[in-house]
Amino acid sequence: MLKDIRFASRQLVKQPAFTSIAVVTIALAIGATTAVLSLVNGLMVRPLSYREPQQLVLLLQHFKSQNLERIPVSPPEFKDYEARAHSFEKLGAFRYTNFNLAGEDRPERISGATVTADVLPLLGVSPIRGRFFQPEECSLGRDDA
Fold first, then answer.
1. What is the pLDDT of residue 138?
2. Strand (E) or helix (H) holding 79
3. Can you give the residue ranges of every domain in the chain?
4. For residues 122 and 48, which has the higher predicted lDDT (pLDDT)?
5. Torsion of CA 116, 83, 143, 104, to 10 degrees
6. What CA–CA distance (Å, rounded) separates 48 from 69?
7. Confidence check: pLDDT of 145 > 70
8. pTM of the entire structure?
9. Residue 15 phi/psi, 5° resolution?
10. Which residue pairs from 23-32 have beta carbons closer than 8 angstroms and sit at least 24 positions apart in sequence?
11. CB count in 10 Å sphere of residue 95
12. Rounded to an integer, what distance in angstroms lies between the CA atom of residue 118 and that of residue 132?
């Protein structure tokens, strides 16, 4: 094995262009691998930075007779849970939705979520400026923000 290493070293010294290309290729591969693994670690491996994530629960419905699973809870059912569930510190609801973001150029379709007033404080986040909406500001018939 030592002979092979010496032979490879001599060949690399004899051909500097090939050596340079090989070194650059290896450096790019290591950099790309590091970037991808950092993203995977940050987005999928590390736990989310919510306050007490082990205390969070997602409620979903199953309708076995219709072969439907993982159905979100409807707004009236959420209101029933909110009124009757006394074992939880707080309850919040969210729904993924799309929005139109309009500016000076063409409107752009973006993905987001509609959330109740308790969701963000429940997750332990705080606004950079201002305050969160209060629950009474989120009732039906109120002005949109």
1. 76
2. helix 75-84
3. 2-45, 53-138
4. 122
5. 10
6. 25
7. no
8. 0.57
9. -120, 80
10. none
11. 12
12. 9
